[in-house]
Design goal:
There is one protein chain. α1 runs antiparallel to α3. The chain has one domain. By secondary structure, it is mostly helical. The chain contains three helices and no strands. Its main location: membrane. One of its GO terms (cellular component) is plasma membrane. It holds the Pfam family PDGLE. This is PDGLE domain-containing protein.
């Protein structure tokens, strides 16, 4: 029964990740506040990014690249969470 809920959760997350290209192109709330208050340039990039800016390298179609980045990120996080739990 427990693994059934993990599978349902994974499928829901994968479905949501596949809808990423339909999300708003506006910046998220924190980024918007940083722009409005004028400190967006003080932000620092993380030293290591697996899939930078949610774009999968080597794929020209931006929507498909975003979907793949979301799916791979979801699978990575679920793998880590499942191995910890």
């Amino acid at each position: 029964m427990k693994s059934k809920w993990w599978l349902i959760g994974l499928l829901v997350c994968l479905a949501v990740a596949s809808l990423a290209p339909l999300a708003s192109s506006s910046p998220d709330g924190l980024e918007r506040v940083a722009e409005d208050k004028g400190f967006i340039d003080l932000g620092q990039e993380t030293p290591f990014q697996i899939i930078a800016d949610y774009v999968f390298p080597g794929i020209e179609n931006e929507a498909l690249a975003t979907i793949l980045a979301g799916l791979i990120g979801t699978l990575i996080l679920f793998s880590v969470a499942y191995s910890v739990a």
